[in-house]
Give the backbone structure.
Amino acid sequence: RSLSARWVAPTVTSAGEVLAYPKPLSVKGTVEGQPKTQTGPDSLGLAEPTDGLWLRGIGLLDRQPGSQAVSVAAVPLLEAVMELIPNTSSQALLDKPLQSLCALIERTGGVRRFTYAEAADLVEVFHASVFGGAAEGKPASAPVPAPGAWTGVDCAGSDDPVPNGWVVRCNAADAVESDGDILVLNSAGVTRLSGIGPTVWAATERAITEDQLIAVLDREHGLPDGY
């Protein structure tokens, strides 16, 4: 991949302040299978990050060689979180990691996906979409996508012994709900619960038998033939 001329790896506070770090660049060589070269930004003459930086917008870059034009599309909240978490270092170490990320998305007006062929094609559209062509520090004039409503979900489980054959949900680091679906973050990563998933999640806060769980699903959703 080509490298940005102003690449920094930021840490973002819950208030949206960006604590910039001049991360070394991993440059891919011309020989297949050769290790990447770690190069300091200063040795390449790149711009140094400054203080007083604030998160202005969040975008997902989707390079599609052969694309005829740059397109910008709003990304639904939970889909955006699912894509951002694997590309965000140490998010799970934060207090309420999913809720803090949702709050940042809400603060910046939602996540956009930029589909493009070459980086040079992206600059003008990106600037207009994120900054609205305005001067630094001025509000963006371009419309921003609605991030989607969300709420934090109690993700505490039970540490009580689980009888053989009973069902209980695992403990999780954090969980959020939006449009009826729930995202759960635990040591296995992020899982999206849809359909009967949220009902199973709510019903198994404490250990229950499989028959009790089936009864809950029958009451809430009905049971298909041959379940």
